[in-house]
Structure to design on (425 residues):
């Protein structure tokens, strides 16, 4: 009884305080608060935001950032940093030193590791902003139930061919193999894929039943590794076949594999390749009339389960301007600005409103990426994923060079990954 009486008296006291406040008092207080909020906004607004964009991808951003500056009076300084290899490491060094960015771009598989280490800030945005994007792309930007970025594009490897050398894209890899057997020779190749790179090899391995991590309730389980199961071995054996039969050049391996593939294709010596949308424009710039299609089906009749990556824009956990950095990320990923980005970079946005835009639907490359993405598997973004790449690359190289049989090499890779996970996480 005493408890309820106390609550009642507090309620009566609150009412009396409100009654003592006339309309004039409330109006004056409200006006005063509005002024304080405006003053706070002005004093906390930074003079400049520092943004790290991917290498050779900044022209569109400079155009859009200028609109942000005109609207908010904040200068935007854009620096290009190679996203694939340098962005993460540079953030780890420059962020804590106070010389890092406010905003940066990353592939989504790096989010978990950097978030755990405190290098990324959780984003707080309206639900309407989240609803702007596909559910899968938002999921890729989420770690441990928290949003750490907004999507800018999704990508997955597809089949790219030289229309002068190949009339139409084959429906199956058996057809690609037969074509290559006839075409390959005199330093010309029917099809090239850098399959000692696990990002590219995953399509074959997963399409045959291998997997990186098993899942429990939709969450990757790093204790369940499927990279040496029967399906993975079958996939690695298929990869080995192309190297063993001389259908791939000896230079198509290791760090130089990608440049070898791209150089030969750009010279018109290769009829088709497996590569991602980032390479569409460079191939065109090399003078190749390219056709683009989803990856042909594997010999087992299954689709290649390529890795799907979602690039996003993120706010540094070390930024002193996280609120305005978040506003900038929201601004540059609107439907209008995402379309500008697509037109200049050809990287496919995940904005739902753009899915039916003619500029995208009538684009052969965008359509191929969209179709292939239906069978693609998002790269796990948990920190443990960082332990997978090097052991898989090293052991795939021993397979394609004939130094180890697929089963033995994949067992070694899984053993190394397991030890790395145990030691690091």
């Amino acid at each position: 009884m005493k408890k309820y009486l106390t609550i009642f008296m507090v309620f009566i006291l609150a009412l009396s305080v409100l009654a003592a406040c006339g309309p004039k008092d409330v109006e004056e207080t409200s006006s005063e608060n509005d002024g304080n909020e405006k003053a706070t906004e002005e004093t906390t607004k930074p003079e400049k935001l520092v943004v790290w964009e991917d290498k050779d991808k900044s022209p569109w951003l400079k155009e859009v950032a200028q609109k942000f500056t005109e609207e908010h009076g904040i200068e935007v300084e854009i620096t290009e940093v190679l996203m694939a290899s340098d962005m993460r490491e540079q953030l780890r060094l420059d962020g804590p030193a106070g010389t890092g960015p406010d905003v940066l771009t990353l592939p989504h598989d790096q989010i978990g590791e950097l978030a755990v280490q405190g290098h990324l800030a959780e984003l707080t945005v309206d639900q309407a902003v989240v609803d702007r994007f596909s559910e899968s792309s938002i999921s890729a930007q989420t770690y441990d139930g928290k949003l750490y970025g907004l999507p800018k594009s999704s990508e997955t490897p597809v089949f790219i061919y030289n229309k002068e050398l190949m009339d139409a894209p084959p429906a199956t890899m058996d057809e690609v193999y037969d074509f290559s057997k006839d075409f390959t020779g005199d330093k010309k190749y029917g099809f090239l894929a850098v399959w000692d790179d696990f990002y590219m090899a995953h399509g074959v391995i997963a399409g045959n039943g291998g997997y990186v991590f098993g899942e429990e309730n939709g969450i990757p389980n790093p204790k369940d590794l499927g990279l040496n199961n029967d399906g993975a071995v079958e996939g690695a054996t298929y990869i080995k076949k192309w190297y063993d039969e001389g259908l791939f050049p000896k230079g198509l391996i290791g760090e130089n594999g990608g440049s070898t593939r791209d150089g030969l294709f750009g010279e018109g010596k290769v009829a088709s390749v497996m590569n991602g949308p980032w390479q569409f424009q460079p191939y065109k710039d090399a003078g190749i009339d390219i056709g683009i299609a989803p990856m042909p089906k594997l010999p087992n009749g299954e689709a290649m389960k390529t890795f799907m990556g979602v690039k996003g824009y993120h706010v540094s956990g070390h930024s002193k301007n996280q609120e305005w950095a978040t506003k900038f990320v929201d601004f540059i990923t609107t439907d209008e600005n995402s379309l500008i980005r697509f037109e200049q970079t050809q990287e496919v946005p995940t904005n739902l409103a753009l899915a039916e835009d003619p500029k995208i639907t009538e684009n052969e490359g965008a359509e191929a990426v969209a179709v292939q993405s239906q069978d693609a598997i998002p790269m796990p973004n948990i920190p443990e994923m960082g332990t997978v790449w090097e052991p898989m690359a090293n052991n795939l190289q021993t397979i394609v060079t004939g130094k180890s049989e697929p089963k033995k090499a994949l067992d070694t890779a899984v053993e190394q990954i397991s030890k790395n996970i145990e030691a690091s996480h």
About this structure: The mean pLDDT is 90. The two ends are 53 Å apart (CA to CA). The longest strand covers residues 307-315.
